[in-house]
Amino acid sequence: MSEAPTFGAFFRELRIRRQKTLRQFCMENGFDPGNVSKLERDLLDAPQSPEVLERYAVALGLERHSAEWQRFLDLAAISAGRIPPDLRAEASLVGRLPLVFRTLRRQPVDGDQLDKLIELLTGD
Q: How far is residue 65 from each of residues 1, 54, 73, measured CA to CA in Å?
């Protein structure tokens, strides 16, 4: 599997892996082909409803709680510019997000902050 960078690209990759055309996939699962086409082309943000995401994930053959299932949900959250809900629930992690953002932007971070971030990420 390649590293699909967006929800839409990952959705399309999963559908194609099942060897289904867009129309076949939609007909078999009761989805609107126009909406799925827009999702796959990233013209429509990923749904945020857990029920809708689960319905898509099941139709795409994802195993519940697998790495691909989690990636699917994470990409949906990212598509809407949101932090995935399970990460948002961890207050210590959310409190360190500004540090992560500064690091990703290559802005200065002091040693103590970096040590705390590494500790949080590695679980040490």
A: 18, 11, 10
Any domain includes 1: no
72: closest CA among 19, 2, 14, 28?
14
Section 56-69 average pLDDT: 95
Tally the domains of the chain: 2
Q: Dump pLDDT digits (tens) for 9-26.
A: 999 999 999 999 999 999
Query: How far is the C-alpha of 27 from the C-alpha of 21, rounded, in Å?
Result: 10
Residue 73 CB partners (closer than 8 Å, separation 6+): 53, 57, 84
